Amino acid sequence: MRRSAAVIGGGVGGLAVAIGLLRAGWSVTVFERATGLPETGTGLGIWPSALRALDQLGVGPVARDRGHAQPGGAMRRPDGSVVATLDVDRIRRRHGEGVLLLSRPVLLGLLAEALPAGTVRFASPVTDVAALADGYDVVVGADGIRSATRVSMFGDRYPLRYAGMTAWRGTVSLELLAGGETWGRGRKFGLTPQGPGMTNWYAAVATRPGYQPPEGDLAALRGWFGDWHDPVPTVLGRLDPAGLLRHDVQFLPALPSYVRGRLVLLGDAAHAMTPDLGQGACQALIDAVVLAQALAAEPDVASALARYDGLRRGPTQRMAAMATWAGRLAQVRRFTGVRDAALRMALAFGPPG
């Protein structure tokens, strides 16, 4: 008898696990609250381990065709002096290829194309996870940082935690050959090339949760970063206030399990981490492949979910802890020389590829 899965959430992890399960012979339905795929979104760095996950899903060649290799980048001080550089050649030597840059809409689009029509039910929020579970062999919670599936499993015992910074982000009409981050005292500004004529930007400032600049976001950003090195002032000069996104940076404390009964979590629903290592999408892709492989290989769902939990909970929680540590470095206001030395060391080793 063909086994069935409901996937709650049609983001990166949800679409990826749907592909994996369909390839394993499962019947899959994805429930997505949005009315369709997004048309805009920031860029994602896909590291070699996540590229291998895309290969296992059969979409790696398409991803490489639509993305572009991340060029070298640098970590700088506000005056433009270099703290450390990202050695992309070293990454290629170590892992066989470098980091691929893809915008979120492009990644979601190529994943969706690999699914049969009708697999994703848009405009279909799930309001009762327990009731949904009655009709499927497994329910995958891929519903993001504010996961209803996680709440169904654990109640309010694991609330999100504030990471100490408020972030702003968006895209700007500007073409850069290379990106990077600039770190000041308790604040940072980052740039990532997205494609021809477009650049992703983000800024983060150590402040209280829920902070809203009284002078307005754009004026505050220009006040904090307007005298930093080029091209930061150029980016700030081109920002459209209507396109600014502001949010508190939050993370999920370590869960005791990613599984309860027939419910299983992946991606941000399981291990939402701060964006400091750029690993959120990568870990969701790896989660999806490992979960699909476990469900294909094990004779029963319980054994498969236990195998997935054993393989993924430890590595993802360690990655999340590394991201939290990196985020705390950015909040340092004193002894920035010591911080810069730690940053050089962290960038030299980098996250697992």
TrEMBL record:
Keywords: Monooxygenase, Oxidoreductase. SUPFAM superfamilies: FAD-linked reductases, C-terminal domain, FAD/NAD(P)-binding domain. It holds the Pfam family FAD_binding_3. The keyword Oxidoreductase applies. Residues 5-113, 257-308 form the FAD-binding domain. One of its GO terms (molecular function) is monooxygenase activity. The keyword DNA repair does not apply. It comes from the Bacteria. InterPro entries: FAD-bd, FAD-dep_Monooxygenase_BioMet, FAD/NAD-bd_sf. This is 2-polyprenyl-6-methoxyphenol hydroxylase.
